[in-house]
Amino acid sequence: MAQPLTRRTLLQSAVLAASVPGIAGGASVAASAATAAPTAALPPPAAWTLLPFDLGSVSLGPGVFADKRRLMLDHARGYDVNRLLQVYRANAGLSTLGAVAPGGWEGLDGEANGNLRGHYTGHFLTMLSQAYASTGDQLYADRIGTVVGALTEVREALRRDPAVLSVTGRFGTAVENVRGSYQYVDLPAGVLGGASEITLAAWVKPTHAGTWARVLDFGDDTTRYLYLTPRNAGGVPRFAVTTGGPGAEQGLDGTAPLPLDEWSHLAVTLAGSTGTLYVNGTEVARNTAMSLTPAALGTLAHHWLGRSHYAADPVFAGAFGGFDVWSRVLSAAEIGGLQSVRGAGDLASYAFDETSGSTFADASGHGLTATLRRTWGGPSHPGFLAAYPETQFIELESMTASDYTRVWAPYYTAHKILRGLLDAHLATDDARALDLASGLGDWMHSRLSPLPEATLQRMWGLFSSGEFGGIVEAICDLHALTGKAEHLALAQLFDLDRLIDACTANTDILDGLHANQHIPIFTGYVRLYDATGEERYLTAAKNFWDMVVPHRMYGIGGTSTGEFWRARDVIAGTLSATTAETCCAYNLLKLSRLLFLHEQDPKYMEYYERALLNQVLGSRQDTPDAEKPLVTYFIGLTPGHVRDYTPKQGTTCCEGTGMESATKYQDSVYFAAADGSALYVNLYSPSTLTWAEKGVTVTQSTDFPREQGTTLTVRGRTASFALRLRVPSWATAGFRVTVNGRGAGGTPTPGSYFTVSRTWHDGDTVRIEAPFRLRVEKALDDPSLQTLFHGPVHLVARDAATTYLEFGLYRNAALSGDLLPSLTPVDGKPLHHTLDGTEFAPFFEGAEDPTHAYVRRAEPRVVFGNSDSGVANPAKADGTTLLDEVWAGAPFSGKAALVARVRSVVNAWVADGMLGQADGETVVSTARSATFAP
């Protein structure tokens, strides 16, 4: 193991340290020749004792996973990527090609002013990369190329001064300011010429109805200025001039809104005490009490077209077709004539007919060349790439309290696009994608490395504003590809010491923390352990995982309520309509997978199966839609909850991770031992593995989970390896393994791996039988509130009631302890059952029915084999009932063993005064006469 590197050592030596070559690809697993194999690959860390197979090496067969993936692939194929690129192109001042931003979190009108825009493009790029890696369909590669090419153009545009975006104007050409570009025209001093009389005229084509954007704003600050806006608070044009701030404005207000996407002419004349406002050649306002003129304002600092001196006002979105200033008052007839003939002001005149560059010529003869600028200047580093200005990153560095309307997780968004670019490179070997990713890393290092340690700790501790997602994992992957020491140093700049130290000491501080802000942090810390050998990273991640599972885990595998964690072991007390944020399950799956690659504790794959098969599959609606991914944000676990598959106006984080989840279902079905000595079968899913190093394929033929077992067929060369089959903890009804029809020998233990070691030959088959039982899992803080599982499948009751449904399950329990005989199967609907007229269905079905994930357990009377004894089922102070104690002894070898258990429990309860003697005898007699399923 490498000597641990402290952050201080890394920061001091980052620029000087020589890069360490990645581990050779000999330990990697090649992709199937049947799909387009990526030619770029991450070197596997030396710390991994298992190696995953790439997505192209594992193909999905027909079944529930393939069905869900097909729905998401329709979305990947059908959605217009130019819509995703709209916010990036707008930020760079490029043409958006007429595309409309997706909306929701992806657009300036979304939640928190669209401060998270750009994240969804990264998710989509990852989805496309996984789709291409899995299927080899060139369409996905082409779409990846489109996105990467556009982002390359965006970065290049951000590196230089803003350039003219030429469009068709009222007369010839015009210049457009795309909404979201934050561009304006800076006019030189002297444009007003100190005139006491003046006419201002402009052709404008507004494209957005936002109020208080400026056609022009000439002034020093928010005290001395004159401005013209196309829409004031009332939605009509307004001109105003003041030397005493907004309360002292002398103004002119129009009478009607300017139409959007149409050319309008605005003109203002000012002389003596009279000001007049014209719209399209018609006088709409006159004020004879305007004592202020441009001369009264004196020399002004700024002369802007499109930008306001009020920072909260939007930048003008639309086109300028001309701007002129005259040193006299034009008559109404002259202004009317400007509607059909291009005029030229004698103080300043801009036709905006340039088609390139970033300056605009003045035709007045005064040589007052104007310049196109950004309100925020430009990036601090050439590697910067985002869908909004660098200002959010800058402001975060001085924030002391969270406010997502000002700063919303900019490094989280940076992570999403960095991850998408890395995945694009790995899937298609596109060098442009790696160059963009490397540039992002370089920019972040230049931004963060000079900051004091205390500033970094404060930033990363801020709720939401300081959230950075899985950026550490992505940066570690970037470092593995580039070998740049700066990138590894950058990864450690995201250390949140308070969190690491607490989890390393196994001190649970999760109560009150934002769940999804912290889960992906630990995946990154495990990768930092891989890169540096610092044990605290791995220890903290393992302890953290144990704080969540099972102590804050719902039955479906999800965690969090209202996005936050509450006290340890409080489950029933946190159930709400906003439980189980889908991103949390996605990130816990990633962490579980990564921990298992280091340490083969079956609990990690137990969780993986639970969350993947239930919450993740169930988060996707079973409806095709090319426009929407149809993925939940929250999954409410309250009675009668109906899942919302189009949350928060769309393009949320959970829809993004949902797109990713649905295109990588096969990523953890199989792992190989790092030395090639073993193959781990972690999940039972119809699939085919191509294990190129061994020259074999392994095919699972099954309809799991509708089938209670699977068949593995080995084809190809003769090869020796151990086949390690996961024995799920729920497999208490037996787990039988045969090889070529003969028993494999040994005793599989639930919650472990069963090993079959042999030399495998072409055509060898392994059959696994894993019968399901119906069992319950009790809420940790309320044992009467329970979830039902049939094998690995969480069953939900479909009912519109908004109070907990009550059910008894012991009534026809089998000698094995299986509760399923108490339910009635539904013909033609696998895994569906009814109980007391209520249908129970698999959680993974993406329906819109009201459901009950938790039900109230009620066993009012002692019943055996559907025979009611008539005796009340007594309970102890802790809620444990007589029937609970009886069935705790299951499985029973036969009826006699069950009756003996009943007699023993009855005698104890009678002795403790909790059951009458006569009632006890009735209970025993009922059990003795009842008929039980095996």
Task: Itemize the secondary structure elements and their pairings.
Layout: H1 7-13, E1 50-52, E2 58-60, H2 64-78, H3 81-91, H4 119-135, H5 138-159, E3 166-168, E4 173-177, E5 183-186, E6 198-206, E7 216-219, E8 225-229, E9 238-242, E10 250-253, E11 264-271, E12 274-279, E13 282-287, H6 294-297, E14 302-305, E15 318-326, H7 332-337, E16 348-350, E17 359-360, E18 370-374, H8 391-396, H9 410-428, H10 431-448, H11 453-460, H12 471-482, H13 485-492, H14 497-504, H15 515-532, H16 535-548, H17 582-598, H18 602-618, H19 653-661, E19 670-673, E20 678-681, E21 687-691, E22 696-701, E23 709-716, E24 719-727, E25 736-739, E26 742-743, E27 752-760, E28 765-769, E29 774-779, E30 782-790, E31 793-798, E32 806-807, E33 824-825, E34 833-835, E35 838-842, E36 851-852, E37 855-857, E38 861-864, E39 867-872, H20 882-887, H21 895-911, H22 917-929
Helix pairs in contact: 1-13, 3-5, 4-5, 4-9, 4-19, 5-9, 9-10, 9-12, 10-13, 12-13, 12-15, 14-16, 15-16, 15-17, 16-17, 17-18, 21-22
Structure explained in plain terms:
Strand 22 and strand 23 (about 710-715) form a beta hairpin. Strands 29, 30, 31, 32, 33, 34, 35, 36 and 37 form a nine-stranded mixed β-sheet that branches. About 30% of the residues lie in helices and about 20% in strands. Helix 1 runs antiparallel to helix 13 (about 485-490) and helix 12 (about 470-480) packs parallel to helix 15 (about 515-530). It starts with 6 loop residues before the first helix and ends in a 5-residue tail after the last helix. The chain is of the alpha+beta class.
